[in-house]
Write a structure and sequence with these properties.
Layout (H helix, E strand, L loop, with lengths): L9 E10 L5 H19 L6 E8 L9 H5 L8 E5 L10 E10 L9 E2 L14 H10 L6 H4 L7
Parallel strand pairs: 1-5, 2-3
Antiparallel strand pairs: 1-4, 2-4
Helix pairs in contact: 1-3
Length: about 160
C-alpha cells in the first residue's frame, strides 16, 4: 500500500492461450481476436495499461502474425513480438499463446488468465468455457476492418 492507503501501480503478467482451427490468416486472426477480447474484458484493460505483449504460435501456424489481431483493438503503441514455441513431441498443436505485461493495481489473485478452446487442457484452472467466451465476445465489438489491416509484413 502507498502512504495514502492505495495499492501501488505494478507490472504484472497476464497469460492466455487458444487454438486456431487451421493454418490460415483468417483462423489465426479469429482465434487471437477472441483471446484478446477475453483478456481485455476480464481484466478491464485499456491499451494504455499494456506495457508489452509476447505472442507465440506452435510451429504449425505460419500464415499470420497474431499481433495483427491485437493491433485491431488499439494496441498500436504497444511493443509486441511474435515467435514460435518449442516443437515438443506430443504438445498441443495449432496453439496461439500470449504473455501480456500490464501496469495495474490488481493483486496476482485478481488477474484473470485466459485459456480457450483446446488450450484449456494446458491450464484447466484458467480455462474459460465456450459459453462464457460467447458472452464476453458479444459485449466487445470486433473491428471489421482487421482484414484490410492484416497485410503481410516483414515482422509482427
Amino acid at each position: 500500500m502507498t502512504s495514502h492507503g492505495e495499492r501501488p501501480l505494478v507490472c504484472r503478467g497476464v497469460r492466455g492461450a487458444t487454438t486456431a482451427t487451421a493454418n490460415t490468416a483468417e483462423d489465426i486472426l479469429e482465434a487471437t481476436q477472441e483471446l484478446v477480447i477475453a483478456l481485455i474484458e476480464l481484466n478491464d484493460l485499456t491499451s494504455e495499461d499494456i506495457a508489452s505483449a509476447i505472442f507465440t504460435t506452435t510451429t504449425d501456424l505460419t500464415a499470420m502474425f497474431p499481433a495483427m489481431a491485437a493491433r485491431s483493438f488499439g494496441w498500436t503503441e504497444v511493443p509486441m513480438i511474435c515467435s514460435h514455441e518449442m516443437a515438443v513431441p506430443g504438445a498441443l498443436t495449432k496453439a496461439v499463446r500470449v504473455l501480456v505485461h500490464v501496469n495495474t493495481t490488481k493483486t496476482p489473485s485478481e488477474i484473470r488468465h485466459v485459456y480457450l478452446k483446446g488450450a484449456r487442457q494446458l491450464r484447466p484452472e484458467w480455462g474459460i468455457s465456450d459459453k462464457e467466451l460467447a458472452d464476453i465476445t458479444l459485449r466487445q465489438p470486433v473491428d471489421q476492418n482487421i482484414e484490410s489491416e492484416a497485410q503481410p509484413v516483414a515482422n509482427g
